[in-house]
Specification:
The protein is α+β, with helices and mostly antiparallel strands and about 150 residues long. The protein has helices spanning about 5, 50-60, 120-135; strands at about 25-30, 40-45, 65-70, 75-80, 95-105, 110-120, 140-145, 150. It is globular, with a radius of gyration of 16 Å.
Length: about 150
């Protein structure tokens, strides 16, 4: 960490809750073109445009990235985090809307975009994500409606 960033006030615990005029946003970065987006952190912002701007200003200082992916935290649906990797399920179907699927390769790691699926709701999306992407190396899935994902 640079000397300037070491001088910043350090805090412990979770990010404070959003105020009535802001939303909580989740940020992922892509460090090389074609690489997977990886979880970087979160922030509070009043709208989509400022969330993207704040993400670039804050997470761009941590590492050089070629793109950002941002979504409101309230629309994410997280599956349980297992100790052992998940095995593929048997959920199928093509009804619903597209969902972006994030996978956690190991406890304590970072969520990574693994693909997309189509489902009518978050729970079904998690089931279909497990069927499509569980390969014995993912311990948790998160799904987000694709229309709520902003890539910049």
């Amino acid at each position: 960490m640079s000397k300037i960033r070491q001088q910043l006030i350090q805090h412990e615990g979770d990010l404070p809750p959003a105020t009535p005029d802001t939303d909580h946003w989740i940020v992922y970065t892509q460090t090389k073109k074609g690489a997977a987006f990886r979880w970087a952190g979160s922030l509070n912002a009043p709208d989509q445009a400022l969330a993207v701007q704040f993400a670039g200003e804050h997470y761009g200082l941590d590492e050089a990235c070629v793109a950002l992916l941002v979504h409101p935290a309230r629309v994410a649906v997280d599956g349980p985090c297992g100790i052992d990797p998940l095995e593929a399920g048997d959920a199928s179907g093509e009804d619903g809307v597209p969902w972006c699927v994030f996978g956690l390769p190991r406890r304590g790691g970072n969520l990574v975009v693994v693909g997309t699926i189509v489902a009518p709701c978050g729970e079904t999306a998690l089931d279909r994500a497990t069927t499509a992407f569980a390969n014995g190396r993912i311990v948790q899935f998160r799904v987000v409606p694709e229309d709520q994902v902003i890539i910049s």
